[in-house]
Amino acid sequence: MPRLLPFSGSRRARLRPTAGSGDSGATAGVPGALRALGVRPSRRLGQNFLLDPRVAERIAALVADPLEPVVEIGPGLGALTERLAASGRLVVAVELDLRLAEEVERRLAARPNVRVVRGDVLEQRLGDLLPGSAPVMVVANLPYSITTPAVEWVLAGGARVRRAYLMVQREVAERMTARPGGKEFGSLAVFLAMHAEVKPLFRVSPGAFYPRPEVESVVVEVTPRPYPGSTEAERGDAEKLARAATGGRRKTVANALARGMGVEPDAARRLLSEAGVDPGRRGETLAVEEWLNLARAWARAAAGRP
Ligand code: SAM
Questions:
Q1: Which atom of ligand 1 approaches the CA of 121 most closely?
Q2: What CATH number does the domain located at 9-224 have?
Q3: What tens digit of pLDDT does each residue of 43-61 get?
Q4: Distance CA 293, CA 275 (A)
Q5: Is 73 in the pocket of ligand 1 (CB under 6 A)?
Q6: Ligand 1 test: best mutation among 43, 96, 103, most atoms within 8 Å of CB?
Q7: What's residue 9's pLDDT?
Q8: Any atom of ligand 1 within 6 Å of the Cβ of 95
Q9: What is the position in ligand 1's atom list of the atom closest to the CA of 45?
Q10: Beta-strand relationship, 196-204 and 217-224
Q11: Which entry of 31, 114, 174, 256 is 20 to 30 Å from 77 by CA?
Q12: In this predicted model, what pLDDT tens digit does every residue of 237-277 receive, in sequence order?
């Protein structure tokens, strides 16, 4: 399974609660519905519920095939679930908060095509949620607390996941889609580039959620695919090297690599030269292809090959 170490970032910090929008459906009267259930939105569970039905519509409409099955991570009160299920497709919704799982099941009881699974999505196997080999979509207003592992979980689904539409914090979306040289470019972007194409689609303002987060969110489209012309081992090494040699305070990739991978500075410089990378550059400026070249040089050195 593709793995990425946690990366740092601010939480979806909450400000003062705002009133519900008064719209119909699962977005209506969110604060009141939570109160009635005795649910105080949990930061640990990344509980920022969608208030704006237009946003829910817009996300659901991204899943163009009306019959393609969908796995939803964290249905909450069902804002996305009810729209995803409206076409009659199978929706498997995995919810960790048991009170919400029960509530969304109750709200959507009239829809036999919705199946609510109780538990942590990260502990589920896609093949258990949706047996068979047919392609599936993953949709989520992601709990910020599990953004990185949830993205890893989606990519661990491999070719089975045709596409994922994920709402994430804007700063995370920027890191996911960053280009080399930009200040957001780091191990998350390298990791994603190895396994997927990622496109930012649209922004969602803090006012669309309850409780209101401090920052904007962005819906991103993630299309799993292995980086062209690379092997699994090369991709794994490139991720490892990028993780070790970006994001730190060390200014040159040679120093960062030596420190992060536990090799002598001279050996790090040799590897970089062999990969055609100037050892004096910063790790954040290396393109994905250069991380792969470095991974190939690393593997040759490990095998004792010139
Ligand atoms: N989809 C709903 C919406 O848009 O209003 C709720 C989104 S809220 C940002 C995230 C949801 O994920 C919450 O319902 C939370 O309880 C649930 N959740 C948090 N961690 C989870 C996990 N590890 N597995 C499954 N669900 C989780």
A1: 24
A2: 3.40.50.150
A3: 999 999 999 999 999 999 9
A4: 5
A5: yes
A6: 96
A7: 36
A8: yes
A9: 19
A10: antiparallel
A11: 174
A12: 999 999 998 877 768 999 999 999 999 999 999 999 999 99
Question: Where are the chain's structural domains?
Answer: 9-224, 232-302
Which residue bears the tokens 């946690």? 6
Is 98 a residue whose pLDDT tops 80? yes
User: Which of 43, 45, 53 minimizes the C-alpha distance to 13?
Assistant: 43
CA distance 265 to 263: 6
- Number of the ligand 1 atom closest to the C-alpha atom of 81: 1
For residue 266 the two structure tokens come to 């001279």
Does residue 126 contact residue 50 with C-beta atoms inside 8 Å? Answer: no
Quick one: which of 118, 97, 100 has its CA closest to 108?
Answer: 100
Please identify which residue in the block is written with the tokens 């964290």: 74
Q: How confident is the model at residue 107 (pLDDT cuts 50, 70, 90)?
A: very high
The yes/no answer on whether domain 232-302 falls in CATH 1.10.8.100 is yes
Ligand 1 pocket residue status of 49, Cβ below 6 Å: yes
Q: Ligand 1 test: best mutation among 97, 104, 114, 169, most atoms within 8 Å of CB?
A: 97
